[in-house]
Amino acid sequence: MNLFKSKIFKFGLPVVLIATGLLFVFAQFYFSGKSSVLYKYKDRAAVDPADELYVIFNPFRDKTPEIEAEKVFESLKIGNCEQIEPNVKIDCERENQYKLKSWDLADRVENGDQINLHYKVYRQSHNHYSNVWINLEKVSDKWKVTSYETWY
């Protein structure tokens, strides 16, 4: 009996490979703990912080800080710069001049009760992406935006 032509090999091998792959994925989630980033690669030669940056986010991460950042972007997109936290300095005139069109999370760095979210944003007046960093701090179980930095 030839092993490679047997029914067990034809049907059993794919099942074993799929089970092994699923086990690997679940082990990755389990051993990563509460880490929001499963894998990150950054080319050291890249000049722009978002160039050659590849990040795989944990799909089970706490997305509450990202939701707070989305609120900031939505306010800026419609021109309501004044509705953002009063202690966060944003150049409303420039934001209205270079209106946001879309944004994508590029990186997330956690440091205890502080999170730095790095976004690639596309503005109406540009034909390329620029960078935005939003820092948040956990204050009494709520995430508050503490700073906003952008490259126009």
Q: Could you name the ranges where pLDDT drops below 50 across 5 or more consecutive residues?
A: none
Largest sheet: 4 strands, antiparallel
Return the string of H and E elements. HEEHHEEEE
Strand segment count: 6
N-to-C terminal Cα separation, in Å?
69 Å
Q: Helical element count?
A: 3
* Rg: 21 Å
Estimate percent helicity.
25-40%
Shape: elongated
- The amount of beta strand, in percent, is 25-35%
Strands of the biggest beta sheet: in what spatial order? Answer: 3-4-5-6
Based on secondary structure, the structural category is alpha+beta
Commentary on this structure:
With 152 residues, the chain is α+β, with helices and mostly antiparallel strands. Helix content is 30%, strand content 35%. It has three helices and six strands; from the N terminus they run αββααββββ. The strands form two sheets. It has a four-stranded antiparallel beta sheet, covered by helices on one side. Strands 1-2 form a two-stranded antiparallel ribbon. The longest helix is centred in the N-terminal third of the chain and has 25 residues, at 7-31. The model has no long low-confidence stretch (mean pLDDT 84).
Compile the SSE list and pairings.
Elements: H1 7-31, E1 37-42, E2 53-57, H2 64-77, H3 92-97, E3 100-111, E4 114-123, E5 129-139, E6 142-150
Antiparallel strand pairs: 1-2, 3-4, 4-5, 5-6
Concise account of the structure shown:
With 152 residues, the chain is of the alpha+beta class. The chain has 3 helices and 6 strands, in the order αββααββββ.
